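Meet today's protein:

…
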Amino acid sequence: MTFTHLPDLASRTLAGSVVYANDELFAERENLIKAGPAVFSTEDFGHKGKVYDGWETRRRREPGHDHAIVRLGVPGVVHGVVIDTAWFKGNYPPYASVEATSVEGAPSPDELERASWETIVGKSEIRGDAENTFQVADRRRWTHVRLSIYPDGGVARFRVHGEPVPDPRFLDGTIDLAALEHGGDVVACSNTFYSAPLQLLLPGRARIMGDGWENARRRDGGNDYVTVRLAARGRVRRVEIDTSYFVGNAAGWASLSGTDADRPDEDAEWFDLVPKTRLQPDTRHFLRSASAAPVTHVRLGVFPDGGLARLRVHGELVADAHRAAVLRWLDLLPAGHAVEVLRGAGVPGVSAQELVNRRPFTGGDVLPPAVMSLLMTTAS
């Protein structure tokens, strides 16, 4: 499946949460979104029976089915899901489906139960002790997904791979332009031997050395690098290069360069944001940007090799990029959510529905300027 390289939007690492399950008697719902594969012990029993590293409901004796609702840590466009039934062999659900919804704010479980849900994976047969993968064709943006199992049973992990699409109303001011939760992504990397470079862009501090990016030891005289596509075109103000937990294997030096190109190629012009700078092991380094010129991508070079925990690229979106992000977000919202957003920005109900019916907004001047001014406040 081509979607599994995309971030897991449901992961606890990205602040995802299983906000509700109608039943979790044998194994708690929170296990669904834990990082890493499920583990199993033949000796691990509790007072309710065998303890599984997953979500498991009791044997259903009445009509119906079980379900769990996951708030995505980062809302986005779902490209595919993985329903992993690892270690569940005689107690897995024979069928499953996935539904999705898009709502404002932080609704309660009761409010989510009343929300409008759309099926993105129809009721499908699944196998026990296996990773069951399903591609998703719907390209709308969702905030929550619901895993439904028929009629009951256990699921070890639930992965929701997709493209982050953050709410652009919260992208004004100074933000981390490289953050995965803001739409940043790794588009190129010289070496991924020990760990994935995308971890550089995760929220929060690294907990262990394995939470960062570490390449193999270089013996050819060159250097390693990571290229990051920023959330949108912006001006970089300051940079954080963090080597926390990398002690004997931290990068010795680092640099950060930027370019202003939609898709940087070999002819792209790169300029210094942070010239080559000495790094210390297990240290957060805070550096000022040498340029305020707009950039779309940054390239982090490490010399000659070595590990880093996090990269932060703080700055502001330029006005045109922020406006484009607002329009694209509105285009990707399900119709009901888009109407709600426009009504909240002062558009009367009937007019809001008429505007939504005229989508896409991207590339046009459909939205009244007063509405756009309420949806974006940056003044780059």
About this structure: Residues 321-375 form one domain. The chain has a mean pLDDT of 93. The chain has three domains: 2-164, 169-317, 321-375.
